[in-house]
Each structure stands twice: as structure tokens, then as C-alpha cells.
Amino acid sequence: MSETHSETVAYVRETMLPPEPPPLAETGAIKWLRENLFSGPLNIALTFVGLGIVWLVVSTVGPWLSHSVWNAGSMAECRQIIAQTWGEGATGACFALIKHRWNQFLFGFYPQALYWRPVLAFGLLFLALAPVLFSESTKARRVVLGLSLALTFVFAALLGAPMGALLGMAVLMLLWAALIETRPRWSLLASLAYPFIAVWLLWGGSLWSEAMVLAGFCLGFVVWRLLAARFGLLAFALAVMATAAWWLLLAGPLASVLAGVLPLRLRPVSSDQFGGFVLSITIGVAGIALSLPLGVILALARRSDLPVIKLLAVMFIEFIRGVPLITLLFVASLLLNYFLPPGTNFDIILRVIIMVTLFAAAYMAEVIRGGLAALPKGQYEAADALGLDYWKAQRLIVLPQALKISIPGIVSTFIGMFKDTTLVVFVGLFDPLKAMADTIRASFEWKGAYWEPYIFVGAIFFILCFGMSRYSMYLERRLKRDHH
Amino acid sequence: MTTRTTAIPAASDEAAIEIVKLNKWYGTFHVLRDIDLVVGKGERIVIAGPSGSGKSTLIRCINRLEEHQSGKIIVDGTELTHDLKNIDKVRSEVGMVFQHFNLFPHLTILENCTLAPIWVRKIPKREAEETAMHFLTKVKIPEQAHKYPGQLSGGQQQRVAIARALCMRPRIMLFDEPTSALDPEMIKEVLDTMIELAEDGMTMLCVTHEMGFAQAVAHRVIFMDQGQIVEQNTPKEFFNNPRSERTKLFLSQILGH
Asked: How much is the pLDDT for B2?
């Protein structure tokens, strides 16, 4: 063929070449080793240094882990067992501490008989989230629903939930799961009600007070929907006023009347009994759920054409980001007491949640602003040209794409915030890492345990954060819209 | 280039768009200078000119993607001012097709076409989908309705963009260099779609360098340079007898090879 080509300029291909597989490249372990570990003098040296470090770590930590003791009543007993089995001077981990005190790491000083309540709240969290997080895949949603149903029930039973509670729980969860599978849209309403159920389960008291708070929100929403068409922004103000009036004037008396008719009471648990992962997850989940919408609003405000709104957003974001979280927590625990009228009972956990939310929202706003800026201008123009107004364009065109771009950043912020919940130790709350570990170490039996609590708490944090990270990768894959 | 000679309806005397003494600046740069233009109902105008002459800016002013600083723009009896209601009204009656298609990549083709009818015109979903399928059939890609824009070729995407604009049942269509971003092989399919639209009597303003298209469907060709209308005429006169030197130079450059 090539000869033909060199002789004459005119050339017509008669058959098209079929595609062929690429040549078999040399593969295998040797090639990989040579290319990645021993490709030059520097890399050879670094490989050996690396191997040395790995050896050092393994030779120190390995025996410590393999000598670990799981059955002992105290630190002294642990050491005795290790010395007996592995000889004098051997070191070993004493995980018996975890076996003894796991409940305090998880539940703090929550009353032992009521452990099933946080467990149920945690299980229901997945029911509330499933229709939102796994709306794209029926299979994944069913797996999550099934697992959370089964695990919640088993753990609640193991932790000594009373028979009646177990029964009610099973009925509630099965009904809810059925609702999710048959009427996914309606189940979102149940998801919206979840925070109130969770608060009731965690803190106890009368269900009617939570129901009245929820009713206030519903009232505000109804007022806004009815008046929005005629009054615009004024309708929003009226809705806020109606909600506030409801809470201040009617909610209290009505709640006590209803409680008199049908008492739905759980034993109250006060905020200072919270601790460990119950506390961390409560603050973390609330902060995550609240900081995302707040962050979206702040990001939109910062890109607003209205100078006042833009200025307010910039000031808020820059101020909050410029201050360490601990400062905000101190403000929550100390300063607010001076400003609030004396005798006000403003729950410390609620105060911390507000501060953590504000803090995470400022970061979230910047992450989302990055996503907004990454959208091509043409998307905004196409939305405008079709006659979509600002809010519709944001909701239908801009945010779905901007949030999708921002998923890695958003989840990073979530993970960072969740780990930051351990900082509540500075305002006297019992976080799992420092406060609970110190409390346990302060006991006579477990004096001298150093690494074990940190390893245990670190492992749980890792599982939860890794889970979030994997979910974000799953979501990114799911939302991919080209080349499939 | 398609040279179909089907009866293309003529323009009426009623005005669809009236532009009076339109001026616009980008900062201190005077992009549009004293533009006067009346577009009749059913009239098809092709706007040509060198890059930077303000032709895109002019049609983008007509649906207020760009704000003008002085002069009047009246679209279908509604004057464009700062009143957001008027702007939304004009936008829902004026369809626009962009150089880079600007389809919504997170929505399917069908959802791209039904979004605005459902949310702006408040048409029930099923009816909006029927309309969308009607127009997708018209632009000859009904079978792609459930794919995403990223899975379509440039020419197909641009035809979807035309269908999307048509789903709002606009009275006026604006085209901002609809074929400039396309491979040569795909230009024809888009131009054919536009010619069909012309046969239906749609009022069209089209910024383009496709002079064959101008000759086939335009009632009037407008030549712009430095923010001003330099010459306008029927396509026949415009191409055969250009009057200004600037027009002659432009035509010799784009037709000369």
C-alpha cells in the first residue's frame, strides 16, 4: 500500500481497517516493582528508608497489639496477665477497658435503662435519610432500610428495651419503611418530622411540646403559602410573627391540655447526662442538617446583586471563618448567659448546635460559592432566556449543578465539622475523645490506660467519616450525566 | 447549503419589535450607537458583521440578557424597562438559541424541553411532554428524548435547543450564531431546522455568517459595524449590489475564497 502511495498521489482506500487490540504490553509484578520502586538511585534509597520505617512501626506496634488482653477487671490485672503470658517486660494493649466501659464511650452518662432510646433515634435517622440519600437507587435504599431496621431492633433488644417499646418500635419502623417504599414523596414529610421525634427520644418529656413546636412551623408555612401570592415578602414576615405568637402564647397551654388528655411521656434526660458518641452524633447530625441550607442561602447572598445582602453575607462569612470554633463555643456557653434574661433556660447542647451550625455554614457557603462560580454563564443565560425567575432558576438549574460540583467540598466540610464536635469538651460537655477518656482513666481500675481509649474512639470516628466519604463518591458516580 | 424554494410567508406590516435610538455601553466602550430597527410580524432578519460589531449584543438586548442605557425597546407591545414583570413577560414570548446551545446538562432532553413550560407557563406535565415530543419530532430527534445532552452530538444538541425554545410557543425567535460552534457536517442539519421554522412564518432574528441561509430565508439583511447599522437591504440587493465600502470589504472577505 505504501508503495502505491509513493508512486501516485491519487489513492483510494478500498477496505477500511478493523480495530485491533493493543499490543500485549509486558505486565506483572517485576515490571511494577522496577517502575514504581526501583526506577533510579534516589527511588531505590527511598524504598529502603520506607521499608525501614514500616519495619520500625510494625515491630513496635505489632507485639503490643498481638499481646492485647480482652478479659480483665482492671489495668493491674491486664499487666499481670501480659507478664504471665509473654514474660516480664512485655508490653500489650489492654482492650479489656473497652469491653468494660464501651457504654460510656457511646452513651456518656445517659441512664443505662434508656440506652434503647438513642439507638432508636439513630436507627430512625437512616429511615429519615434513605428517601433523600438513595432516591436514585431502589436497591441501595432497600439494603439501607433493611439493615437499619434489623440492627436497630437487635441492638435495642440487647440493650434492654422494655417489651412495649420494642413492639411500638417495630410497628413504627415497619410502617415508615412501607411508606418510603410505596409513597416516597409522602415519606419526605415523615423525614421532616424526624428531628422532632429524635429530640423527644433523646431528651424525653412530653411528646406534645415537640409537636407544638412542629405545629408552629406548619402554621408559619401555611400562612406564608396563603399570603405569598398577594403580599410577597410581607407574607414571610407575617408567617414568622404567626409562628412566634403560636409558640409564645398558645403552644404551652395547649401542650399541657393535650398531655392531660393523652399523656405521651418519656422519662426526661437532661443535657448534662449526654456524652460520648450520643453527644457527638447529636451535635454533628444537627449541624450537618442545618448548615447545608444555611450555607446555600449565604452563598447565594454573597453572589447577590443587592449590595446590602451581599455585604451582610460577606461580613458574616468572613467574621465566622476568622474566629476559632472554640471562641464561638465559649461565647455559647459563657457570654450568652450574660445577655439572656436571668432565669432563661437555654439548653447548652442547643447553644452549641447553633454555634457549630453557624461555623460550618460559613465554610459551606464558600464551598458552594465555588460550585456556583464554576457553572458556565450560559446556564444562567439560558434560564433567564426561558423566563425563569431568580428563585426558579436557582432551584431548578443552578443549585442542582452547583451542589453536584461541590459534593467533595461539602462532604469534607461535614467530616471536618463532625470531628470538631469533640471540641465541646472545652465548654464542659463530655465528648468521646477527651472528656470520656479522661473520666474513665480517672477511675481506680483503669488508671494508666493511655492509647486504648484513643484507638477505640478514633476507630469509630474513622468508620463514620469513611462512611460519609464513600457515600459522597457513590453520589458523584450516580449523578454523572455524560458518557454512559 | 439548502436551496429550497418552498413558499416562505412574507412579513406583515405590524411591528413585532420596535427599537428606537438604542444606545449601550460596556463601561466606557460604546457598543451600540443609535440603533433604530423595526421588525415586522413574521419578518426574518439576518444580522451580519465583523466580530465586535455589536450584533450579538443587539439581539441580547431584545430579551434583556443585556441591559441598555438609553433608547427604547418594545417587544410585542411590552416596553423593556427595569420592571421585572415586563422582562419575564418578554422572555417567555421570545425564544433564544445560543452559540454554545446552553442545554441543562443535569436534565434529560425531554426535561430540558418541559422545564420552562411547566414552571413558567404552568402547563400540566403530561401536556408539556406531549408538546415537547411534538417539537422534538419536528427537529427530528424524538428518539433521543430520554438521553442527557452530554450524550448528543453538537448538531443534535443545537436542534434540542431550538425545540426547547419552541416549547414555550414563542412569537419571536432569536438566534445568536447558532452554527458557529458546530462541525461543518452538522451545520446543515441545524440550518434545515431553521429553514423549516421560517416556512411556518416565525418572526426570526438571526446573527449568523451563513450567507446561503440569509439568501434562502431572510427578508432583510442588516450589516453592522462598530455598533451601528451600516447597511440594510433585501438579501438579493445586499449580496449583488452592496453600497457601502465596508460592506463590500466584508463580503469580499467572507465570500472571497
From this structure: 42
